[in-house]
């Protein structure tokens, strides 16, 4: 039965248009949660640096502003102190909430200019913004650029520019053009802060993507190794199923005098075995990739460990093999033990060339488990780049999957400068499915 095609994924939402209302809205909408500037750094010194910088500016600007406003601009001392606190304390708030800090300080700056008495001839030339207010503005604009979105920065710069121009153009006292300092330098700081923010966002996005890619790569490696194990075990199981089919089909000819019920039972067994073989081959076709061809050679077992050791010695790795006489092993255990030793020796050739390797395969005291031990010593020379750098990285993954398949245990890790692989494989079949990874 044909399936209808799945609907296409929804298109991503279109960005909001940059209308004047959007700029006003961004003035009251922070770009994200109140996280400290540089708070994601792993070094404590860097995380505390914004607080230290804000504290220094607060310690300097607060007394200077409270002294300068009454002395040079003729403001009442109590009002000057109150406005000085409202203009400088937001510097500490800017570490976590730059937009809120800028709004508080900018409102205090505006009230300060409106409360200043109009100076007469020979009055201060820094007008309408006193110098400490300009410095505080620049610091807060840099913090806004580091945290907020581009439209917010544009709105902050535009409001600062319009307010400064109105104060300069409507006042009977004109300064030396210092009102342009927040416009020019503030705009530059907003751009620099935005560029640094964009760079940081790009680096964080790249790190997240690398983490996702690594997880996907590990998952793909695990699935490929499981498919490879399934293909190998197919040959083992298919052999036994073929034997069952042949024995069931030939039973009426080998055993004369069988009753009709027995002949029918043997025929049913043979048919079921052939059907199982067909299903296995269909499953194998799903697991096999398009560029993978079927293997015609029988799957190896522990009887080929000697050949494997000799091939490893020819590759420049001395191997000491201990392989006593063993009883007939279950095919899955026999194949898994061989593959574990093969992967362990391949890892030594790649990563510790020249190191002596001891391989031991034996039964435990109760003769219920097969013990596989591969230990390599430290390489004789200083470790250099691996001889093989194009491997799939399936070694330990494959070992764990094979051990999990038969219900055994695996212990790996460094040992006296070398590496140790120890597997314990049960000789009895599993009564239930092994837990999924």
UniProtKB/TrEMBL annotation:
Histidine kinase/HSP90-like ATPase domain ranges (all copies): 337-428
Signal transduction histidine kinase subgroup 3 dimerisation and phosphoacceptor domain segment(s): 225-290
Keywords: ATP-binding, Coiled coil, Kinase, Membrane, Nucleotide-binding, Phosphoprotein, Transferase, Transmembrane, Transmembrane helix, Two-component regulatory system
Keyword Transmembrane helix listed: yes
EC number: 2.7.13.3
Record field: catalytic activity: ATP + protein L-histidine = ADP + protein N-phospho-L-histidine
Endpoints of the signal sequence: none
Coiled-coil boundaries: 205-232
Catalytic EC class: transferase
MF-aspect GO terms: ATP binding; phosphorelay sensor kinase activity; protein dimerization activity
InterPro entries xrefs: HATPase_C_sf (IPR036890), HATPase_dom (IPR003594), Sensor_HK_TwoCompSys (IPR050482), Sig_transdc_His_kin_sub3_dim/P (IPR011712)
Name of this protein: histidine kinase
Source organism of this protein record: Streptomyces mashuensis
């Amino acid at each position: 039965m044909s399936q209808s095609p799945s609907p296409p994924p929804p298109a991503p939402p279109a960005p909001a248009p940059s209308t004047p209302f959007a700029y006003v809205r961004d003035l009251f909408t922070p770009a994200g949660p109140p996280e400290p500037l540089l708070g994601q750094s792993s070094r404590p010194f860097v995380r505390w640096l914004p607080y230290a910088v804000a504290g220094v500016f607060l310690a300097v600007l607060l007394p200077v502003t409270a002294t300068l406003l009454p002395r040079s601009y003729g403001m009442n001392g109590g009002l000057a102190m109150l406005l000085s606190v409202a203009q400088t304390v937001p510097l500490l708030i800017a570490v976590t909430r730059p937009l809120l800090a800028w709004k508080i300080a900018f409102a205090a700056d505006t009230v300060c200019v409106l409360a200043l008495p109009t100076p007469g001839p020979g009055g201060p030339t820094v007008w309408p913004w006193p110098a400490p207010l300009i410095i505080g503005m620049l610091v807060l604009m840099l913090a806004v650029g580091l945290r907020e979105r581009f439209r917010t920065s544009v709105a902050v710069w535009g409001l600062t520019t319009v307010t400064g121009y109105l104060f300069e153009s409507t006042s009977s006292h004109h300064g030396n053009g210092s009102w342009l300092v927040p416009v020019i330098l503030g705009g530059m700081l907003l751009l620099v802060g935005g560029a640094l923010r964009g760079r940081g966002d790009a680096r964080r996005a790249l790190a997240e993507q690398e983490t996702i890619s690594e997880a996907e790569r590990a998952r793909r490696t695990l699935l490929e190794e499981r498919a490879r194990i399934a293909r190998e075990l197919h040959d083992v199981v298919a052999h036994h199923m073929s034997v069952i089919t042949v024995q069931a089909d030939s039973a009426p000819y080998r055993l004369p005098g069988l009753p009709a019920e027995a002949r029918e039972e043997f025929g049913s067994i043979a048919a079921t075995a052939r059907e199982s073989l067909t299903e296995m081959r269909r499953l194998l076709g799903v697991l096999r990739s398009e560029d993978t061809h079927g293997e015609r050679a029988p799957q190896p077992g522990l009887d080929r460990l000697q050949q494997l050791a000799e091939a490893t010695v020819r590759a420049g790795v001395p191997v000491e093999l201990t392989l006593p006489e063993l009883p007939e092993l279950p095919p899955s255990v026999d194949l898994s033990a061989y593959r574990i030793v093969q992967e362990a020796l391949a890892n030594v050739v790649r990563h510790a060339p020249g190191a002596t390797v001891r391989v031991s395969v034996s039964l435990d005291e109760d003769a219920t488990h097969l013990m596989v031990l591969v230990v390599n010593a430290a390489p004789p020379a200083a470790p250099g780049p691996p001889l093989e750098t194009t491997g799939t990285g399936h070694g330990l993954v494959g070992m764990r999957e094979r051990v999990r398949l038969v219900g055994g245990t695996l212990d790996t890790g460094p040992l006296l400068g070398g590496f140790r692989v120890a597997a314990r494989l049960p000789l009895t079949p599993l009564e239930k499915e092994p837990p999924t990874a």
